[in-house]
Amino acid sequence: MRIGALVTAVGVLLAALAAEAFAASDVRGVRLWRAPDNTRLVFDLSGPVQHSVFTLAAPDRIVIDVSGAKLATNLEQLSLANTPITGVRSAQRSADDLRVVIDLSAPVSPKSFTLAPNQQYGHRLVVDLFDQGSAPPATQAPSVAASAPPVPVTPTQPPPKLTPVPNGKRDIVVAIDAGHGGEDPGALSPVKGQYEKNVTLAIAKELQRQINAEKGFRGELVRTGDYFIPLRKRTEIARKKGADLFVSIHADAAPRSSAFGASVYALSERGATSETARWLADAENQSDLIGGAGNVSLDDKDKMLAGVLLDLSMTASLSSSLNVGQKVLSNMGGITPLHKRRVEQAGFMVLKSPDIPSILVETGFISNPNEAKKLHTANHQQALARSITSGVKQFFHENPPPGTYVAWLRDEGKIAAGPREHVVARGESLALIAQRYQISLASLRSANRLNGDVIKVGQTLHIPATALAAQ
Predict the structure, then answer these.
(1) Residue 229, pLDDT above cutoff 60
(2) pLDDT for res 466
(3) Model pLDDT, residue 346
(4) Phi-psi bin for 58: left (phi > 0), alpha (psi -120 to 50), beta?
């Protein structure tokens, strides 16, 4: 009798588990985001689902069949302005099978994937509709398991920077990346309704305005509105704009609400310089999992070559990143407390562009109630942007790219050359630095009172003017 009762109990339990596993999930909400080249629909689900997507023409439509789902929200509340979507309708094909039809004003290329729950969201079905002429990235089967960030590869397409022209006067291009956006709100503030993605966009727009006010400089926004951009695509956008510098703006959170102060970060390929740097990098690199980037496929045949090229180009880029980062940090220290007084380093995915000097600016801790209030004010945002602009100008006045208006001003003697500094990066030698600045090794030793050629990573070297070095 006991064995029979046990078998019966186990059977009932398994049946209950099976029923729960195959129970229909509710579509609890639908959100829509518009980006410059695509429209994103996010279906919030109470559990996992299977789905398929196909297109129909005459008229253009997208059909989404969701197995194991019921609609528990109102699709009519979606705002479809400035999108190719003219209407969204649905029908319950059976008790557990939902069909959603998206009516379109123009054909699009769809891409879809599901995302498992994380700290901010439950199960999600993401459908991206790419405008014609903007094909979706090639993907493998999407994976949402947290893993180490993939090794960065050198882009197969070179940056579209113009060949330096003698006496050229092009603008220095600064790509300004407002962190997070759209589906990824970033860090949450204790101030109700305040999200990191909104603060960073406001500061980024103000920074662009101030940079554009400087003759010879042009600021380009990577993200112009409230939509999600995968981390790797942010650097691709900067490269397409011909960026000479990439500045990523953030306002992050820490486990302790008492943490305060601004910081500037550069890339580290060999570990973080502090526990805070490591924690923040881990948090920022989760953006693709939160925002839903899918799993972008890289071209395997280029990886070995890319790795070699990366090593050759990263050293010079990292040195410039540390240099401009220190100037920005010093200027920020004049208007807000600093969390660290030196440029920190960690493995931020968004900084892994081998050909563009890149820094990540933490404008403050949005998890700190006092800093959150300041970050929300226009006056503080303007002051932060002003300090970043000053640091960027100082760097490029000392190190103007050839063929730019600022380089022409320097060559014509219309701006003071001023003292130049170089922050030593891993893998650099004194001879390599002297060659880069076109000065003699002896003059570099003399300017820094060096008895030999031994230098340390992070050491700041004074670079003598060319005329002085030639004496």
Answers:
(1) yes
(2) 58
(3) 79
(4) left
- What is the spatial distance between Cα 10 and Cα 5, in angstroms, rounded to a whole number? 9
113-171 pLDDT per residue, tens: 999 887 778 999 999 999 987 656 554 333 333 333 333 333 334 444 555 555 679 99
Q: Answer whether residue 319 shows pLDDT above 90.
A: no
Residues 6 or more apart in contact with residue 258 via CB below 8 angstroms: 368
pLDDT tens, residue by residue, 160-201: 455 555 567 999 999 999 999 998 888 888 878 889 999 999
Which tokens is 115 given?
């995302």
* Residue bearing the bigger pLDDT, 254 or 448: 448
User: What does the chain come to in residues?
Assistant: 471
CB-based burial label for 378 (10 Å; 0-12, 13-18, 19+)? exposed
Q: At what angle do helices 196-212 and 378-398 cross, to 10 degrees?
A: 50
Percent of the chain with pLDDT strictly greater than 70? 75
Angle at which helix 303-332 crosses helix 378-398, to 10 degrees, equals 120
d(CA 68, CA 20) in angstroms, rounded, equals: 11
Determine the 3-state secondary structure of 63 from DSSP: strand
Q: Which of 211, 191, 123, 168 is nearest to 367 (CA)?
A: 191
Rounded CA separation 152/118 (Å): 25
Q: Is the peptide bond before 107 cis (omega within 30 degrees of 0)?
A: no
The whole-angstrom separation of Cα 93 and Cα 101 is 12
SS3 64: strand
Helices and strands (H and E) in the chain: how many: 12, 17
Tokens of 94: 């059976």
For residues 437 and 428, the answer to whether their CB atoms sit within 8 Å is no
How far apart CA 52 and CA 188 sit, in angstroms, is 34
